Amino acid sequence: MASQPERLAVAVVGGGYSGISSFWALQNSGHDVHLFEASTSLGGRIQSRSFEGSGSLLDIDAPSSFNAATSPNFVSLLRCLGVSTSPDALGFCASAGASTFEWDLSALKSVSRHPRILCNWETYRILFDIVRFRHLAADVLADRSCSDKSHGGQPLPTAQDYLAREGFSNSFRDRYLVPLLSMLWGLDAGRTLSHFPMRTLCQLLQRHRLLSGSHRGTKWKRIDYGANQFIQGMLRGLPAAKVHLQTRVSAARPRGKGRFILLTSDGAQRPFDHVVFAVDAQECIRILDSAAAPKELDVLQELRGSGSRHIAVLHSDPGLMPRKHRRRPSFDYILSNDPSANSSVSRKTCLSYNMSTRPNTSANRPSVSLTLDPFTPPDPRFVHAIWEYTDWKVDSTTLTALRLLPSIQDKRGLSFCAAWSGSGFFEDAVTAGLAIAVDHLGAELPFALEHHRWDEIELEDLGIGVRRHLVRTLVGLVRAYVLVLEIFWAILRILLASATKMRRNSKERIGRLTTM
After folding, report:
1. Fewest beta carbons less than 10 Å away: which of 8, 162, 183, 248?
2. For residue range 171-195, what is the model confidence (pLDDT) as tens digits?
């Protein structure tokens, strides 16, 4: 007779996507599972808020879009829960005062849908740099000697350093690449370029098929009626008594081999055989404190930077609303309109999500925006909600630590998972939580779990070959021509300015002579 699996008391600390996924997967495992969340609701950054005058509940999802082609586990989970999705045509905008650039994921579609951008000379330089970037990114990915650890004993070049070295324009960086990344991650990507490895950035773009002009295999979708529907679907039928909201875990103290006592904010002390940490690394260190093993502490300390704190403001301040009404959800990457700012390093930036143009949104609903880390505070009269959350951040140190994470997993009855254990997308968070439940605690899923590395790429999709080399050569020639034109134009402007100054001085001298 086969022996029954041991029944364990399991604690899941953190009610974000990873924690909920792990808690859901463990329900039929035979274990006694409890979920602890410090806030008043589950879902992490996925929140629901209501505001005066709206008369209805507003789902806040930042964002609720995902690439179905690269999210097999998330898609399977949604299907299992009966959560419906619809195709989503992603678009984004970069604005600085009256200057606005609207883009689709395809540059050609951007031009066809917004032909007015061709009236701006800056657009042509951006389009040229888009083509250059795709081909140079293929070279970065194809360079096997350029691993994500380091090469030649030196850290990998950051995205910011690489763009500057290769002569990409500030316009391409600030008005296309950074807004694109910000839309994908739902955070201000401009703050990450100075420490984000260039190769990793290329891996993430290739993962979503954004380095190919045709975007074959890209299937962007959105969760109908907001991402909060996913949270509700996960909780449906789960034991409410084992979901502890507003219960912060203050400490985890070892009690014998493979057991821990969790001390919580409600004053309780609960024993557990296994603890799943679905929070950021800094929170793990705080809870474990002196109970952390040396190797655990080493890895978690290197991952502390993976938790970056942000402020989200839900508001209807007309002074901060998008200037134009759009027919679909709009991500606006906003740069401060400072004439003295020559680069995004000195400019202030933030990301604003126009909630009023979301699908399934009532036409008579007041105009509402969700702004992340606003550099201009909204008028308090129009602020409906403010909350803080921790989001994904990565650099070379974090990447190295992520490779060491498996060495501390499922040791001493401790497991670690969150979106930061991947690349920060829904798929990464869900896969991390499900994998812990299946691999560490023997849970069985109603679908096959796909294990995949977040940095896996398919070079064949880039079309590396003779054709790409020919295009690269042509792009190089065009770039040289553009540089010559820019130098010529700079010299011409200097000469014109000098001539204007000479004429002005001559007129002043003549004026003085005539008055003598």
Report:
1. 248
2. 999 999 999 988 887 778 888 888 8
Amino acid making up residue 513: L
CA-CA distance, 341 to 91, in Å (whole number)? 26
> What are 276's two structure tokens?
């799943």
Q: Which residues pair with 383 in a beta bridge?
A: 315
pLDDT over threshold 50, residue 341: no
d(CA 422, CA 403): 11
Would you tell me how many other CB atoms lie within 10 Å of the CB of residue 101?
22
What is the DSSP track for 345-379? TTS-EEEEEEGGGSTT--TTSPP-EEEES-SSPPP
Helix (H) or strand (E) holding 183: helix 178-185
Look at residues 93, 120, 96, 111 and name the one whose alpha carbon lies nearest to residue 178: 93
pTM score: 0.82
Radius of gyration from C-alpha coordinates of the chain: 26
- Distance CA(60)–CA(389), nearest Å, equals 13
Whole-angstrom distance, CA of residue 63 vs CA of residue 41:
18
List pLDDT tens digits, range 37-74.
998 888 776 665 655 555 555 555 555 788 898 899 99
Q: Which two three-digit tokens encode residue 168?
A: 């990409």
Q: Which fold has domain 9-84+222-306+394-441?
A: FAD/NAD(P)-binding domain (3.50.50)
- Phi, psi torsion values for 232, nearest 5 degrees: -65, -40
User: CB under 8 Å to 270, separation ≥6 — which residues?
Assistant: 9, 11, 34, 261, 262, 264
Q: Which two tokens stand for residue 98?
A: 């009256």
Tell me the residue ranges of DSSP E strands in 159-306.
220-223, 243-244, 249-254, 260-264, 269-272, 274-277
Give the residue, 76 or 464, on which the prediction is more confident: 76
Contact 420, 85 (CB under 8 A): no
Roughly how many angstroms between the first and final C-alpha of the chain, as a whole number? 119
Strand 383-392, strand 414-416: pairing: unpaired
- Which amino acid is located at 427 in the chain? E
Q: State the DSSP H helix or E strand holding residue 49, giving kind and residue range, or none if neither.
A: strand 47-50
CB distance 297 to 285 below 8 Å: yes
Distance CA 18, CA 446 (A): 18
